[in-house]
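Dig into what follows:
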Amino acid sequence: MSAALDPVRADRPKKAYAARALTDDALVALPLPEGHRPEHGDLVLAEVTSVGHHKELELASGRKSRLFTGDTLLVAYAPRYAPDHFEAELPDDFGDCDLVAAGGVLGKVRSRHASTEPPTAVRVLARLGDADGRPLNVADFALPPVAPSTRWVPTFVVVGTSMNSGKTTTVASLVHGLTKAGLRVGATKVTGTAAGGDPWLFRDAGAALALDFTDIGMATTFRMPLPRIAAGLERLHAHLTAADVDAVVVEIADGLLQPETAELLNHPTTRALADGVLFSAVDSSGALFGVRALQAAGHHVLAISGVLTQSPLAIREAQAHVDVPVYGPGDLRSAAIATELLRRVNAPAAHAV
């Protein structure tokens, strides 16, 4: 039997970024099914039982809300792949589990980085359903398909050595540079874990439209089938080009060795859309490995950026071994350099990918 969430309305629990599409108009609390495993993207009402590593929840509004024991949350189940934080899988049941990402992702932690505390623990109170009692999933709120644009829109893809290598900063900086050059720019993050900070940064940098994989129905992309991730990339790109942008910048999360990243880079959809790649690296060795791996796979690498650009010595080390320029965030924010990258994307060599 289902029960309306009122007086525990959807505006009373803390609504996480991953659950931002929910409205309180017709939400009902559904009993937790016994003997069933949660599915990727299932939306639930949960209660914090102890505060651990994640002490704040990223709300649908973008605000970081301090967490307290007893807080109720609107969140989604999904596995997570984050070498600097948690490796987490879907739980075996709807019992007690962990908050594995600040954007509102629940899972069961399998391993954690030595620098992280034990996860914030939660108790799931109910599945969330619609007025007809149908369980809700993040996938139910995906943007609809749109017809692909018939015009060519230059598309940059940003990848890196790992998480926290500077990919999002690289995307935002390039978006800003292209915008300063007079272009209308679209940006998207197509893989990763639900977190609003990245698309919001893209908008702050000047993106006319910024989307991410949650907009096409995925709380995370870890463990998602490759065809669905590739279809998601295609749909996100189509929505951006339908917004009449002059250029698109795409971020692929994590590093080249992460399974979904490696597979997506070699997928025909990515190869058809990517007109040039920027590689974000933590150090010069990573830059050398990444550029050589991408070039060997036939990708048109335009430049190196990322954390290594904070060190002049690391920049010189990289420049001594690669045949592409190294640009820091300040360089990419320059209209002149952004225009030069756009010119190189337009070159015939860019379409040999």
